[in-house]
Amino acid sequence: MKPKARRSEPLYAVIEAAIRDGITAGTQPVGSCLPTEHELCAKFDASRFTIRRALNGLRALGMIEPRPGIGTFIVASSPRTALVQTLTSVEQLLQYPGTMLRENQRSDLIGADASLAVLLDCEPGDDWIWLRATRRSEGAELPLSWLDAWLAPRFAAVAGIALTDGSPLLLLVERQYGQRPHHAQVQMSAGRITPEMAGPLMAEEATPALVITRRYRDEAGAIYLATCSTHPEGRFSLSFEFQTT
């Protein structure tokens, strides 16, 4: 039977809501397999394309998981919590909201290898303070992201402060040393969860991730702080809103 759609609501969204409500109500329990795509097409009198869009929405919510050759299984009875950061200025793009908590994992003084030297635009062998941490939204059960951060040694005190102060590293450098970025670069790319990240993030190794790399330069054009944040699939998204004139 084809569900009734409101004029402003596409059919795939109505079907997604119907399946979601069934899962939430326990009609289709966690661990069970959804009907096949063909069966769903018949049930909702919809095309395969429409059914796939509905299932993609449920997958993005973390409620279902396709397993090749077996079927699509229900893995959660409610949508998982994800942080959506709405950006209205360039400044907001440079850091997370203020409610974010950082849980430090480790800090080391290292020499940049060839690949890191490219990222940090420095010479191989140059010293950097390397911090690793996880970030979590206040009150959230799952960590939001894994953080790799590289800090110029002249700002070494920030590494110690960061152990007890969860403020963004960019702000800690500014407070302690008065250093503000004169140039910032933000790059977003697709990545994977590494073995080191999997445990602390409570995520499966090698699963997809959103990677955001930020590099901050001083007055002389030298990078003094770089961060690489790896977000497991479905836990973070960016929404851009800019007023044009």
Shape call:
elongated
Summarize the helix and strand pattern as letters: HHHEEEHEHEEHHEHEEE
Top CATH class of the largest domain: Alpha Beta
Percent in helix = 25-40%
Spatial extent as radius of gyration: 22 Å
Total count of helical runs of at least 4 residues: 8
What does the average pLDDT come to? 83
Tell me the domain tally.
Answer: 2
CATH architecture tag of the largest domain: 3-Layer(aba) Sandwich
Number of strands: 10
Strand content: 25-35%
How would you name the CATH homologous superfamily of the largest domain? Chorismate lyase-like
Task: Provide the CATH topology of the largest domain.
Answer: Chorismate lyase
What does this structure look like?
- It is built from eight helices and ten strands.
- With 245 residues, it is an alpha+beta fold.
- It has two domains: 11-74, Arc Repressor Mutant, subunit A (Orthogonal Bundle), CATH 1.10.10.10; 83-240, 3-Layer(aba) Sandwich (Chorismate lyase), CATH 3.40.1410.10.
- It is elongated.
- It starts with 10 loop residues before the first helix and ends in a 5-residue tail after the last strand.
- The relative contact order is 0.13.
